[in-house]
């Protein structure tokens, strides 16, 4: 392909050569006329070269929105010509992707207290670290209701769970009763269904549309715990658990026994098994996860 501007340059070379030939065989006035014509052609050629447009730069359209953060269903940005996946934008699968992990109590609320100064709020926070790692190894994103010694309200914890899409809720407790070395899973007992006069699900009955799913999730987790901790029940038990009642997602409470152990290390040694059982139970529940039908929740 001819480079832009080479045609004008060839004309200049031709005129220069022609002028040199004429100058040797013509009179002065003819030479001056040709020389003047040569100058005009040169000026025209240089002007044409200056006006050749530069090749436009290649432009990639990065203006398409990219959605990131803790919400599932994130999608990467697209270029104008074809779909592309940004390596910085993780793509999450539809369905269950998030586990909201709730270490109970905290702050001035220490929960159950046992011998040797054992505090429930401290134990469950340490358990949560191992549960989180086990869940992340199964491919889940984990959102914790607290990371330190603070005490979010019941409603704050539920609100964090209710703001997620594609999530389940797991709250961790250490009992003051029960056979030491065992673990029990609770789901919320029956709640009245229906909506209020505005057509919304009342805040204190947010768990109602999820009771069946919660029972299934609880049974999966309890089944794995029973295999690891002898004396633990085989299925989840129903109880009026305040934290579960206001949670609009499949939700379970995991209670470890107990703070009355003589040696705190007895509880610490349970943490890896509890974490693995919870992670495996949630992973087994994943294919069963569906979004329960509800229009919303009102306080």
Quick recap:
The protein is an alpha/beta fold. It has helices at 6-23, 28-50, 120-137, 154-162, 211-228, 242-245, 264-268, 271-285; strands at residues 98-103, 141-144, 167-175, 183-188, 201-202, 237-239, 251-257, 297-298. It has eight helices and eight strands.
Topology of helices and strands:
Blueprint: H1 6-23, H2 28-50, E1 98-103, H3 120-137, E2 141-144, H4 154-162, E3 167-175, E4 183-188, E5 201-202, H5 211-228, E6 237-239, H6 242-245, E7 251-257, H7 264-268, H8 271-285, E8 297-298
Parallel strand pairs: 1-2, 1-3, 3-7, 4-6, 5-8
Antiparallel strand pairs: 4-7
Helix pairs in contact: 1-2, 3-8, 5-8
Helical content (DSSP H or I, runs of 4+): 25-40%
Oligomeric state of the chains present here: single chain
Give a count of the beta strands, DSSP E runs of length 2 or more. Answer: 8
CATH topology of the largest domain: Aminopeptidase
Secondary structure category: alpha/beta
Distance between the termini: 73 Å
What is the string of helix and strand elements?
HHEHEHEEEHEHEHHE
Q: What would the average pLDDT be, to the nearest integer?
A: 77
